[in-house]
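Internal tracking record. Fields below are filled automatically when a chain is submitted to the structure queue. Please do not edit lines marked as system-generated. If the sequence contains nonstandard residues, flag them in the REMARKS field before resubmitting.
Queue: standard
Priority: normal
Entity type: single polypeptide chain
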Amino acid sequence: MTVWSDAIETLRPRSRAPDDSLPPLMLLLTVVTGLVDAASYLNLGHVFVANMTGNVVFLGFAIAGAKGLSASASLVALGSFVAGSAVGGRLGSRLAEQRLRLLRSALALQLVAVLAAVVVAALAGDQVDRASRLVLTALLALAMGLQNATARRLAVPELTTTVLTMTLTGIGADSVPAGGPGSKLGRRSLAIAAMLVGALTGALLALRVDTAAPLAAAAGVLAVTALTAHRLSSGRAGY
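SYSTEM-GENERATED OUTPUT FOLLOWS
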């Protein structure tokens, strides 16, 4: 399969399996990750709400006394992410055999959390105080923990929606020159591009408008994804 055909198959799957529509939906959720992490890192005190590896590193830096980092913000993000993951795990256990319904249910809860964050950010205005930053961090990390747990349960190949480290590793390690079977460069490139588009858009909105703007954009993408998952699950009994 060529890079182009791999990318097209990801965006418009030809398979008629019940969950054939999951790959493009996972790409939309990858865009959401870029949007919210841009808002949190740039406007909420250098903390991630989706990239927990970064928060563990930031926590170590903050404990060591690095300026511009907050140990409490990293801890709030980590704790809220784990809580969101627990909710996602619970949903996954209940709807393990109904993948589209699982995605629909998880997205509905995630959308509520992100919309709540939009309201908090809008009320806070241009000057987001410490309390509002922590509330926003908690809401967004909760939402992203839920998303990550759901993506883990769905296990769509190469589309984790929040982590690109293994995606980049796979491009090199699975390549033909490395002795691998082929790196699925089309799908993996789309995942990287989706994260980049989300991060770029989120950064522009966060820097040039306000904190609420990228979060509202993330809510919009989530709403579209949720409505699509609802339509697809409603049309397929048992899914």
